[in-house]
Specification:
Blueprint (H helix, E strand, L loop, with lengths): L1 H17 L23 H12 L5 E10 L2 E10 L5 H22 L6 H9 L5 E4 L2 H9 L3 E5 L5 E4 L29 H11 L5 E8 L5 E8 L5 H12 L9 H8 L11 E3 L2 H10 L2 E5 L5 E4 L17 H31 L6 H11 L6 H21 L2 H21 L5 H14 L6 H18 L1 H17 L1 E2 L2 E2 L58
Antiparallel strand pairs: 1-2, 2-4, 3-5, 4-5, 6-7, 7-9, 8-10, 9-10, 11-12
Length: 542
């Protein structure tokens, strides 16, 4: 068998080596390996561009002729259909070039470059840049800009007039709040950057732009606040993002999987959110965000475990209610993970822990059930997860109805048929609902539950405790961009616990977390605790 496998692998390698190689696209290459630069012949320049980019039907060339004093100069405007603002292009590019440029040239005695004259004295569009590399010109056109090429000139003018269709700013579907901002990110990177600018208007908000993807050339912005974010953290994020070499980036999830610290861990070490106010709050803590063009989900690092039980609404409400809700979320998080295994362990190995009347009822329910308890919990858990997935994938109008009706019908039918017990249905339903309270970890709950159910079915309470210790030890060993995943619990830091599992009043949160912000830790002035006015300072009506 080994000889046969080696022979097959050898044949596959020979076939791969003999296969003709398809040349890589020139867009995105550097100058050393890229296509040639522009010449002074307009027809030759257009031929080079079409040879590289192809003669696609959406790549439009608008030929024009400029009547300069003493000569007629040909030019061409290159753009993608449905990706530019036609009115803007007509009023700020075509009309000035055809009408105003001859008057400007007539008033000037001499000029060195017609491209410089057009850029500085004619075009009224805000964003104009000069490019000589064919690779860069094609890249800008494919991103929605317009390129103005002139005969007898070896440089082109790139005009920023992108205007493709984007989704309007709406409320996020995954992170709804009762009180607080209800706007969410869109698929447009420019819109998302503007939403962050509205939250943080200071000059220290920085966007470092990168282009990722050999074919997609996706625009990525590494976002941070200069003076707050640790410089080492910023450089590490930029290093991990810039080293990504992939055909295309279609969503921020691609980047998340390629920059995380523990790719084999169940627990995510890169945060994600659809809300600009959440990103702004994390930037103010000293974290770094990654925005991806085409994705409404922003990434934030480092990601810590306590973010799972926090919501943006915690900071918009009074601290007492927020603290109680955080404790409730933590309780439900533990319940959705531990309860199925605890149920199996107690019923199978430790029935003395159950009240006598309840154990008699449960024993009566289990009479005639064909499946062992472990398999019963696993099978019904899979059915519940399937119903949840069906509700998510179906159209919104019918998805919730299918989930509710399906759960009721299947639960009642399986109990009546004697396939499962009513207590198993109750435990599974409670565990499934509890998992929705912490949506950031919903994807990993089913795996952890089955792991603990298996250990509990084999070893009882001892197996459950052993599984919990293994999970906790694994979580304590994780790092997110150098920061301990369980900080400030492990390692323990009492001074940082005031905004973790409870929320202290805002006037008490005067410093940023020490395990995130290294230098500028002060974020609030001391002595902002509200107090009633002193006697004698009240203004009285006369």
């Amino acid at each position: 068998m080994r000889k046969i496998l080696n022979m097959i692998l050898r044949r596959v390698k020979e076939a791969e080596s003999n296969r003709p190689r398809v040349p890589e696209p020139a867009v995105g290459r550097d100058k050393a390996q890229g296509p040639p630069y522009l010449t002074r012949d307009l027809d030759n320049n257009l031929k080079i561009i079409f040879d590289i980019a192809g003669r696609n039907p959406d790549l439009i060339v608008r030929h024009m002729e400029i009547n300069l004093p003493g000569e007629a100069r040909r030019c061409a405007l290159l753009f993608l259909d449905e990706m530019v603002d036609s009115e803007l292009m007509g009023s700020m590019i075509i009309e000035p070039v055809l009408k105003e440029l001859p008057q400007v040239i007539k008033s000037r005695r001499a000029y060195t470059s017609l491209v410089d004259v057009i850029e500085k004295n004619v075009l009224t569009i805000p964003g104009v840049r000069q490019f000589a590399s064919v690779s860069e010109i094609i890249g800008e056109v494919l991103r929605g800009n317009s390129a103005l090429l002139l005969d007898k000139e070896n440089k082109a003018l790139i005009c920023a007039n992108r205007a493709y269709e984007v989704r309007s700013v709406e409320e996020p579907t995954l992170e709804t709040v009762v009180r607080g901002p209800k706007e969410g990110f869109t698929e447009s990177l420019s819109t998302n950057m503007a939403l962050l600018r509205r939250k943080i208007a200071g000059p220290n908000l920085r966007f470092d732009q990168l282009w990722i993807g050999k074919y997609s050339q996706t625009r990525v912005a590494v976002t941070y606040i200069y003076g707050i974010a640790d410089r080492g953290l910023v450089e590490e994020v930029k290093k991990r993002v810039s080293r990504i070499s992939i055909d295309g980036v279609l969503d921020s999830g691609y980047i998340e999987q390629l920059i995380e610290d523990a790719p084999y861990s169940l627990f995510p070490t890169v945060g994600n959110t659809e809300k600009p106010d959440v990103v702004a709050a994390r930037l103010l803590e000293g974290k770094v965000a990654v925005l991806v063009d085409g994705s409404p989900v922003a990434l934030t690092v480092p990601r810590l475990f306590y973010e799972t039980i926090q919501t943006p609404e915690d900071y918009y409400s009074r601290p007492y209610n927020s603290s109680v809700l955080r404790i409730i979320r933590l309780f439900f998080f533990i319940s959705t993970v531990v309860l199925p295994g605890f149920y199996v362990a107690v019923v199978n190995y430790h029935p003395e822990l159950i009240p006598r009347r309840l154990i008699i009822t449960m024993a009566g329910d289990r009479e005639g059930v064909p499946l062992p308890l472990v398999l019963e919990v696993v099978v019904f858990g899979i059915i519940f997860e399937g119903l949840r997935e069906a509700g998510v994938r179906m159209p919104r109008a019918v998805g919730s109805a299918i989930t509710i009706v399906g759960a009721l019908l299947i639960g009642q039918a399986t109990v009546d048929a004697g396939l499962v017990t009513s207590s198993t249905v109750i435990v599974t339903a409670f565990v499934g609902i509890a998992g929705f309270i912490t949506p950031g970890l919903t994807d990993i709950f089913i795996i952890i539950r089955f792991f603990l159910v298996f250990l509990s079915g084999v070893l009882g309470i001892s197996g459950l405790i052993m599984g919990i210790l293994v999970l906790y030890a694994h979580m304590c060993s994780l790092r997110s961009f150098g920061v301990p995943y369980m900080a400030p619990i492990a390692p323990l830091n009492f001074s940082q616990l005031k905004d973790v599992y409870i929320r202290a009043p805002l006037w008490h949160l005067t410093t940023r977390p020490s395990f995130i912000a290294k230098e500028n830790r002060r974020r609030m002035k001391e002595g902002l605790k509200p107090e009633p006015p002193e006697k004698g300072n009240n203004s009285s009506r006369k």
